[in-house]
Amino acid sequence: QVQLVESGGGLVQEGGSLRLSCAASGSIFKMYPMGWYRQAPGKQRDLVATITNDGVTTYTYSVKGRFTVSRDGAKNTLYLQMNSLKPEDTAVYYCSALDAYGVRVWGQGTQVTVSS
Asked: Do residues 98 and 28 lie in contact, with contact meaning Cβ atoms separated by under 8 Å?
């Protein structure tokens, strides 16, 4: 059974930085990208960034140049380095992966709050 546990969220001022981590345990379908999503209050959950097992990354337009997704295969950990944070980045951030059966698994989420 795959478990994903996020950490690293918090309160930061506009322009600040945070680094999120997602520790994965269990059998992840490593041929499928892992990703970070976020959900602001009253809004849908949106994709923020993905990374393949080969290190190929994609980003949603609003975070390009500010966020960096990375993956440590040995530690089975996903990271999201967030710089130049803006109030509109405020959301609960989730990591996600597919398990060995192709079922999407979510972490519990970590709150990021950016004050202006």
From this structure: yes
C-alpha to C-alpha distance for 22 and 75, rounded to whole angstroms: 10
Helical residues (DSSP H) of 57-100, grouped into ranges: none
Q: How far apart are CA 112 and CA 28, in angstroms?
A: 26
- 29-46 residue pLDDT tens: 676 889 999 999 999 999
Give the pLDDT of residue 64: 98
Both tokens of 65, joined, read 């140049």
Cβ count near 112 (within 10 Å): 22
pLDDT of residue 33: 87
Q: Dihedral sign, CA of 24, 29, 81, 12?
A: negative
Residue at 98: amino acid letter: L
